[in-house]
Every structure is written in structure tokens, then in C-alpha cells.
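Long-time lurker. I teach an intro course on protein structure, and each term I like to show students one example going from raw sequence to a predicted 3D structure in C-alpha cell notation. This year I'd like something fresh instead of my usual example. Would anyone be willing to generate the C-alpha cells for the chain below so I can use it in lecture? Attribution to the forum is fine with me.
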Amino acid sequence: MTGEARDGEVRLADDPAAMAGDAHVVFIGRIRSAWTSRDTCPKNMKAARAAERPARVEIDPSYRAGLDGLGRCSHVVVLTWLDRAPRNLIVQKPHHAPEPIGVFGIRSPARPNPVGLHVARLVSLD
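-- Reply from a regular --
Happy to contribute to a lecture. Here you go:
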């Protein structure tokens, strides 16, 4: 992460992004979204819905057979790797909070393992 820390923020001594992994994760696709920077991302679901800019989940060809039967679902659960999020913050000072907060107590993507959990409405399959 670049830049100065905000008052109350605490960074880890070792950046998890530079550490050897202890699990093997295979990415099976990509998310295509109109939001390409942290500054332009909506801060909550109300703002995201109001923007009317849906994202697209693209599954790699070798995993597409796993989509069979998904069309009968109204929603899907998607796990994402937030690859642009800093991984070395352990305490943050959000603009809206009066005091610093540990990263596991807030919704920030900045965390040692930046995994996102999303429940998304299924609009179409192709």
C-alpha cells in the first residue's frame, strides 16, 4: 500500500502479499465491472443499485459445465479475490468512524486475505 497511514491505522510488520501461501486456490473466471478503482466504487448496496451498472461474471471455458442447472436459480453466491486491495492493514480509521477499527470488524476490502463474498441476482446466462 502506498501513501501515508491515516491517524489510528496500524500496518502489519510483514505484508501477507509477500508471504508464501498455505492454500492452493484456482481462479475459475473473472469479474468485469464498470468500477475499476476504489474511488469510483459504491460504498454500499443502495448506491450500487442506484447506479444501475451491473457486473458480469465470466467463467473460463473449462469450468462452464459447472453452470449446468444454474438457470433455475434467482441468485448466486460469488467468492472473489480483491486483487487491488492492500493486504498489510490490520487496523483502519474509516472516514465515518470516530475511532480506529480492526479490519475484521468492518467491510473494507483491505485485509490480510482480501476475499469478497457477494450474493448476486442472476440476470442471464449465455
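Some talking points for your students: Helices lie at 45-51. The chain has a mean pLDDT of 88.
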